[in-house]
Amino acid sequence: MCIPDSVPRAIRPYADMPDHTTSHTRVSCPYCGEIVSITFDPAGGARQEYVEDCQVCCRPWQMVVSVAPDGTAEVTVTAADDL
Ligand SMILES: [Zn+2]
After folding, report:
1. Are 36 and 59 in contact (CB under 8 A)?
2. In angstroms, what is the span from residue 2 Cα to ligand 1's centroid?
3. Could you tell me the pTM of the whole model?
């Protein structure tokens, strides 16, 4: 099997959203530890950094999305207010 586990294909938490431009993955919140489903846009660039709030505890995540030339995306989440 060569399906990267960062791209769960069987899970469609947002069935009403168009699936053409975004991908789903699940991340563990660095604050509350909850596993949260997120969407990101692999077409948005090879490396994307932005802040997104946790859907559970509303604290800010620093998101880093890296997209390989073959389309494989890797999403990293760290605490954004760890100053
Ligand atoms: Zn959280």
Report:
1. no
2. 30
3. 0.68
Within a 10 A sphere around the Cβ of 23, how many other Cβ atoms? Answer: 20
Distance 34 CA to ligand 1 centre (A): 6
Annotated domain spans of the chain = 41-83
70 CA distance to ligand 1 centroid (A)? 31
CA atoms of 44 and 42, how far apart (whole Å): 5
Cα→Cα distances 81→4, 49, 77, Å: 30, 15, 12
> Each residue's pLDDT tens digit in the chain (83 positions)?
555 555 555 555 554 544 557 889 999 999 999 999 999 998 899 999 999 999 999 999 999 999 998 888 999 999 998 65
What are the tokens at 51? 């802040």
